[in-house]
Amino acid sequence: MRNEQLSDIFEEMADIMEILGEDRFRINSYRKVARVIHDCVKDVSVLAGAGKLQELPGVGKSSAEKINEFVHAGTIKAHRDLLKKIPPGLLEMLKIPGMGPKGAAAVWKGLKVTDLDKLKKAIEDHSLEKLAGFGAKKAEAIGRGIEFIKSAGERILLIEAELIADYIIRELKAKTSVKRIEAAGSLRRGCETVGDIDLLAMAKDGGKVIEAFVHLAEVEQVLLAGGTKASVRFAEPEFCRDVVQVDLRIVPTASMGAALQYFTGSKHHNVRLREIAIKKKYKLNEYGLFRGDKQMAGKTEEGIYDKLGLAYVAPALREDRGEVEAALKGELPELVELGDIRGDLHMHSPASDGREEIEALAAAAQGKGYKYIAITDHSKSSVIANGLDVRRLQANIKKIKQINEAFKDFTVLASTEVDILMDGSLDYPDEVLAELDFVIASVHSGLSGPKERNTRRILRALENPYVNCLGHPTGRMIQVREAMDLDMEAIIARAAQTHTALEVSASPLRLDLNDAHCRLAVEAGVKLIINTDAHDTQGLDLMRYGVATARRGWVKKSDVLNCQPVGALRRWVKDKRTSHK
Ligand SMILES: [Zn+2]
Ligand SMILES: [Zn+2]
Fold first, then answer.
1. 377 alpha carbon, closest ligand
2. Rounded CA gap, 141 and 97, in Å?
3. Per mean pLDDT, which range of 59-68, 374-383, 477-486 is the poorest?
4. Is the per-residue pLDDT at 225 higher than 60?
5. What burial letters (b/e) apply to 183-215, b meaning 16+ CB within 10 Å?
6. Does 482 share its domain with 342?
7. Residues 546 and 568 both lie in one domain
8. How far, in Å, is the centroid of ligand 2 from the Cα of 408?
9. Same structural domain for residues 39 and 132?
């Protein structure tokens, strides 16, 4: 986490210098240091302690001094000095897709625009489009970008919410005699972003738990603190840059299930449940299920669903998207679980932009009980990611096959994440792809094209007999980059026809396919593969976010290819190849 903060500081210094029009060479060297720190597996403070900073590529004496300063003081003076030279609102503009430091400098100098609100006005009064280098189309795109980042700022990522909730739960368990404490709300439902965090606790002395909660060091502001409820604004830069509201409620044991059910939501799901309760002459609220004054259920969630005549509905499904009807008929899907996953089929080794060796990735995967992994390094068009040309790919295949020989009950599949080029052809010729055990094809460039062209591009790639999986199908990055404009129904139909799987990327920024697309895909009979796209062994731990997304999309174990043994996977690959001959 320290590396990430430091990397962001170097990146920000480069941005500011670029806004100020400073020396190109120095700017680039800062960006290089930022990247090196970001990709460094070891914590910088360990390297600094050992006096080994200058062994990092691109880190010279002056960068090493700045890193040391950060390790000791938590800030860097050169960074603070640079921050004083520009209006603070300019940095926020850099989050607008297509803006960049040069654009920010242009609007600052040309129009005296120093923050997002002024930029919005400059779009409305048409002054931005008249500025050199902008024009009406670009101004319009920037307007959309402002809306996008403003709406994105209100929610945090699922992984951030989970880290914060886990941290608070750990702290309160250590500091108080709380008996049970659980997260509810959209976090429990596994939504891709979370507005605020709801925690429910059972404790003998609830007042003490509330006390400990509002006095956590990361609490920025106490909005409300009573005997059984507190709301705070929680800020912890190590977890995320935003501040998030966290509510804690103390719940009596007899009502814990009812409270969990009530505060897990969604609102729409709960409205349906209350309707059913009323029909059966019950009253349902956060304290329990009542007939008159008598509590009929509420200690557990299961008890409530049972009394209402419904099968238990997993939190992931509680969106009023047909789950209530299915629960009444006893026809809910048996959702895929993390424990069903037998292998991870998307990860990068140092041959492209991964940070840990294949042996380490294999060992970590075995530690999770997996039976196989696929090494999917980038192809040559992904230049920034150090993509492999054919010669390097073939060397990698050889290496993977050698490593694989050492294993008995575990398989390392030789694979690739081959780029889908602009015309839908692939970055390697078919005869080279034929040497691989498994192939993912992904789009990494030109994501902003028109819908028809984007769709055509992907449909063509799916037709290729060697493509087994479409990687991160829409290319979206939550709150960072919008999804490619695609005809998803056409892609799902073609994936079904061609026996090509669609990926559910577990990467917390991607979660792509999203829940809605997962459901469309499995309804069309398409197989899914849930992958982490890990760049180091830690990355393999993110699988649960992909599983959470798939569960929200009603995905069953039988829909997921990497819940099957490696033999079934190999047959799947072979079937597509031979059906084209
Ligand atoms: Zn990719
Ligand atoms: Zn990848």
1. 2
2. 8
3. 477-486
4. yes
5. bbbbbbbbbbbbebbbbbbbbeebebbbebbbe
6. yes
7. yes
8. 27
9. yes
322: domain CATH number is: 3.30.210.10
**Same-domain check for residues 511 and 525:** yes
Q: What is the mean pLDDT of residues 62-66?
A: 94
Per-residue pLDDT at 550: 98
Tell me how far the alpha carbon of residue 413 lies from the centroid of ligand 2, in angstroms.
15
Q: How far is the CA of 533 from the centre of ligand 1 (A)?
A: 7
Residue 359 Cα to ligand 1 midpoint, Å, equals 21
Q: Tell me the ligand closest to 354's alpha carbon.
A: 2
Q: How far is CA 123 from CA 138, 141, 145, 165, 481, in A?
A: 10, 10, 12, 40, 21
pLDDT of 19 higher than 70: yes
pLDDT of 152 = 60
Where in the sequence is the domain holding 195, given as residue range(s)?
156-250
Cα-to-centroid distance, 63 and ligand 2 (Å): 30
Domain identity same for 59 and 206: no
Question: Which residues lie near ion ligand 2 (Cβ < 5 Å)?
Answer: 417, 533
Share of the chain above pLDDT 90, in %: 82
Query: Do 215 and 270 share a domain, yes or no?
Result: no
Query: What's the structural domain count of the chain?
Result: 4
Question: Over 70: is that where the pLDDT of 30 sits?
Answer: yes
**Of the candidates 107, 137, 152, which is a domain's last residue?**
152
Q: Are residues 571 and 473 in the same domain?
A: yes
Mean pLDDT score, 180-209: 96
Query: How far apart are the CA of 347 and the centre of ligand 2, in A?
Result: 6
Instruction: Please report which ligand is nearest the Cα atom of 442.
Output: 1
Q: CA distances (Å), 183 to each of 9, 153, 259, in order?
A: 33, 22, 11
As a whole number of angstroms, the distance between CA 333 and CA 546 comes to 18
- Does pLDDT of 241 surpass 70? no
- Shared-domain flag, residues 286 and 364: no
